[in-house]
Amino acid sequence: MAVLSYNEILPKTVIVYNGEPYEVLSSHVFRMQMRKPVNQTKLRNLISGKVTEISFHQNETVQEAEVGKMSAKYLYTSRGESWFCDEKNPKNRFAFPEEAVRERVQWLAPNATTEVVTFEDRPITVTIPVKVDLEVTEAPPNIKGDSATGGNKPVKVATGAMVNVPLFINAGDIIRINTDTGVYAERIEKAK
Fold it and tell me: pTM to 2 decimals?
């Protein structure tokens, strides 16, 4: 593991702070009047997902975290836990607390392949693609003249998540969703 000085703690770097891995979301090195420079950072704990603000001073150093990635399959969510298995070895199963991964798991269908971030050979969080294609399972019926209003309607997708889509989307359509924002991007395929 590399040792980083206070000014090398930059965004998208993963560091070890208080024994846990943190992703650096933002950093700003500044100097206030006659004081020594400080790096004001915003860090996200990769295990709990909590964001904290930490200031690193000129004489401080941190370890760069060695994180790995493995391919895994999403299995199911039950009783407050989301279960996954190693894609190469399905017997190797592991779970995350549902509240820690809910925002990402809502876009995963059962048996969907995803990437799991590991720290010290143990799974700590899930990463998913920025855009996913899902089938619309429930959509309110269209009313004649709807297309003139240019509004939106809520629909349910195959994973059970609700998404606001344009009025022309029907049950059976495949839509592309931005997983960062949860917003409809485009229709992929028209229902047959």
Answer: 0.70
